[in-house]
Design brief:
The complex is a heterodimer of chains A (314) and B (404).
Chain A (H helix, E strand, L loop, with lengths): L1 H28 L23 H9 L21 H8 L9 H4 L2 H9 L1 H4 L26 H15 L8 H10 L9 E2 L2 E2 L6 H22 L9 H4 L2 H9 L17 H15 L3 H30 L4
Antiparallel strand pairs in A: 1-2
Chain B lengths: L9 H9 L1 H10 L2 E3 L8 H20 L9 H12 L3 H29 L7 H23 L4 H12 L9 H8 L6 H31 L13 H9 L8 E3 H26 L29 H7 L4 H14 L3 H4 L13 H21 L4 H26 L5
Antiparallel strand pairs in B: 1-2
Helix pairs in contact in B: 1-2, 3-5, 3-11, 4-5, 5-6, 5-11, 6-9, 12-13, 12-15, 13-16, 15-16
Classes of the chains: A mainly alpha (314), B mainly alpha (404).
Membrane topology (chain B): Multi-pass membrane protein
Main location (chain B): membrane
GO molecular function, one term (chain B): oxidoreductase activity
């Protein structure tokens, strides 16, 4: 009994110390930011109930509309320029729109089409009144009801995108993060998946392209966005989710735009980051379970052995 | 040369050449341990097991780690964590053991202080233990540099800066230690060598010394009772195991050691598989960047108390206080003037001293991690002054203690 009391004292002081240097200290050093649930409440609702997909398709594909800058592989529309040249023109390569409807929130997409700087929360950087135009041109309407036309476009993008359950973590990562952030543990550069090269020249050419792209990106963002290989360990899922949801909550005035992903796509992004930064989590669970069973049996035998030996000593 | 007979068995063959029976007697079956000692005396065995885990996991990590500023980070976080089979397991065992070993060392130290196990003939046990603590600290710090993350780099910067000696401005000394103006390749190579060769070697030697220091004075016991080991051992050998005050190390005390180790390992592997994050600072998962200071720089939890003795003072007094904190524990056997080697609970004022010291060190630990602002700096300053005052008071309160 006395030993249990001593153990209780030891455990008590250990836990107090742990609490103070871990949860408590971290709560004091980093302010906690609640997830907004990917609701994007500051954005106007978009009514998709009577949306006309065909009309949306015409607007998206129409002359001078989205496809002037964006590619859309799913509709057989390749990119008008290669990523490096595109980045030189816009600062960053405009995303392929094939899966935009699956990754981005509908409200966000609608707002983005009408007022990119506002939806992306980069109005501090791009103020039209001061002549600082966001590289993405707002859609001013094709002559009808602007909101209706935007809803049609969103509905069209949603109709061509992969189904929710088919969205891969890489597709989500590419649209949400991958055009600015490399992830070298997943062999991902800002230009996409790093191919396997047969000749060193090809590899050097690719590296050179990546560096050119990064130069444009640096000029556009102010600095090169960090490699996200093990951000899942340096920041944790909660930080990443809430940061993506609203970067301004963490870094007021940051050049990083609000990404506008929906909740499901965010889960996919986290999965991608876990695959690159915490690849062995499944194996860890499995091995952990077996080791724990083994070690508990070992402890039980050790206790029984002690009892057997000490029977003669008392 | 001695006379050898034809061996009757392998055991006999070995016995003639290595005296295995005599060794076993001295080391195990007739190495006498007082019976009335509780599980806190098993911390030594736990430390030995944890050190073993560190050594073995360290050897596996060493096979793939690259001590180069360009590749160190990825060799740990990519090669070992992703490409090497079970590399993640070795790394988590190494990381968790490195942190837990300090928890056990502190429990071991405070056990020694509480029961007065450093007194009267046991000074060498205490001093060799403190030497081990200091060497372990250097080992931990040099190991923390190796992944070459943000905290590795900046902790390396801050700690090596201490050697400038405040207003002495011994910047040349700092550069000499680093081999450069900032932590860089030479620095990493040096710390790599220290971590994998010189310091482990020193630790192994000191463990030998620490064990040897136990042989003659024997371990202390829960009641501070002076035991006639020879008379009690004779009783034990005559078959009166229950009446004897001593027991054999093996299998008697070892079975208890193993029981405690078994329970400890459940806790240890729970941490390894389900809670390894506590031992790995997230900041260190960002690669070292000499152009970007982390928002908060702090050492690992086990150095926080001494860091907090440095921090609340102006530079020079801070360094002096820090130096004081590093050496003062060594002097404990000489500062404690009381003749009693009994538990603190029976020693009056010393009992108060013990618990205040324990709480004060926990407060220092907490304040060392928190940002030094507002109320936290004030608490940190008070706790640091309390620490120093407690040590100054120790000889006086123990001098007045009556002999029991």
């Amino acid at each position: 009994m006395k030993e249990l009391k001593i153990l209780a004292v030891v455990v008590f002081f250990t836990l107090v110390t742990y609490y103070l240097v871990e949860p408590f200290a971290h709560s004091q050093m980093h302010k906690h930011i609640e997830s907004e649930g990917f609701a994007y409440e500051d954005l106007a609702d978009v009514n998709l109930t009577d949306a006309n997909v065909t009309n949306g398709q015409e607007l998206v594909m129409g002359a001078g509309a989205c496809l002037g800058c964006h590619s859309m592989e799913v509709a057989g529309m390749p990119a008008p320029m290669d990523p490096v040249t595109a980045a030189q023109s816009y600062g960053v390569n405009p995303p392929d729109l094939s899966n935009a409807g699956a990754v981005y929130d509908a409200k966000f997409l609608a707002d983005l089409i009408k007022n990119p700087a506002h939806a992306l929360m980069v109005e501090h950087k791009f103020d039209a009144e001061k002549g600082q135009m966001h590289p993405m041109v707002p859609f001013y309407g094709a002559g009808g009801d602007l909101d209706k036309e935007v809803a049609d476009m969103v509905a069209y993008l949603q109709s061509v995108a992969v189904k929710k359950e088919e969205l891969t973590s890489e597709q989500a990562y590419e649209l949400a993060c991958g055009r600015c952030h490399a992830n070298h543990y997943a062999e991902w550069t800002q230009l996409g998946n790093k191919p396997a090269f047969k000749k060193e020249q090809e590899e050097l050419k690719y590296k050179s392209d990546v560096l050119d792209y990064q130069d444009s990106l640096k000029a556009y963002m102010g600095k090169l966005p960090p490699d996200l290989s093990i951000y899942i360990r340096s920041r944790g899922a909660h930080y990443i989710e809430t940061f993506v949801e609203n970067p301004q909550n963490y870094l007021k005035g940051t050049a990083m735009p609000r990404v506008g992903v929906n909740e499901h796509a965010m889960e996919k992004v986290i999965e991608y980051l876990e695959d690159s930064g915490d690849a062995k989590r499944a194996e860890r669970e499995e091995v952990g379970k077996n080791v724990m069973i083994y070690i508990i049996i070992f402890a039980i035998f050790a206790i029984l052995w002690k009892k057997a030996i000490w029977r003669d000593l008392h | 040369m001695a006379h050898f007979e034809k061996a009757k068995s392998l055991h006999d063959w070995l016995n003639q050449r290595l005296a295995v029976d005599a060794v076993r007697r001295v080391m195990a079956t007739e190495y006498w341990i007082p019976k009335n000692i509780n599980f806190l005396w098993a911390m030594g065995m736990i430390l030995a097991v944890t050190f073993g885990l560190l050594l073995v996991s360290g050897i596996f990590l060493l096979m793939y780690y690259q001590p180069n500023v360009a590749t160190a980070f990825d060799s740990v976080n990519y090669t070992i964590m992703k490409e090497v089979e079970f590399g993640w397991l070795w790394r988590h065992i190494h990381g968790v053991a490195a942190s837990v070993v300090f928890l056990i060392i502190y429990i071991h130290m405070f056990t020694g202080i509480y029961y007065g196990s450093y007194k009267k003939g046991r000074e060498m046990i205490w001093i060799s233990g403190m030497l081990l603590f200091v060497t372990f600290s250097a080992e931990a710090f040099s190991g923390y540099m190796l992944p070459w993350g943000q905290m590795s780099y900046w902790a390396g910067m801050v700690i090596t800066n201490l050697f400038a000696g405040g207003s002495l401005h011994a910047d040349g000394l700092v550069e000499w230690i680093r081999g450069d103006y900032v932590p860089a390749q030479a620095f990493l190579n040096r710390f790599f060598m220290l971590h994998v060769l010189l310091l482990p070697l020193a630790i192994l030697a000191l463990i030998g010394l620490h064990f040897a220091a136990l042989r003659i004075p024997h371990v202390n016991n829960q009641d501070g009772e002076e035991i006639d080991f020879e008379a009690e051992a004779a009783k034990y050998k005559a078959g009166d195991k229950a009446g004897s005050k001593v027991i054999a190390f093996a299998n008697d005390f070892m079975s208890k050691d193993m029981m405690v180790v078994g329970i400890y390992l459940v806790f240890f592997f729970y941490l390894v598989f389900y809670h390894y994050g506590f031992a790995m600072d997230p900041v260190n998962f960002d690669p070292a960047d000499g152009l970007k200071t982390p928002a908060h720089i702090y050492p690992e939890w086990y150095f926080l108390w001494s860091y907090e003795i440095l921090r609340p003072f102006p530079t020079d007094p801070g360094l002096i206080a820090f130096g004081f904190a590093q050496v003062i524990f060594f002097l404990l056997p000489f500062l404690d003037r009381s003749p009693n080697a009994v538990p603190a609970s029976r020693r009056g004022l010393f009992n108060v001293w013990f618990w205040v010291m324990l709480v004060d060190m926990i407060v220092l630990t907490a304040m060392g991690k928190l940002p030094p602002e507002g109320i936290f700096s004030t608490i940190g300053l008070v706790a640091a002054i309390t620490f120093i005052v407690l040590w100054i008071l120790l000889p006086f309160i123990t001098k007045k203690e009556k002999e029991l």
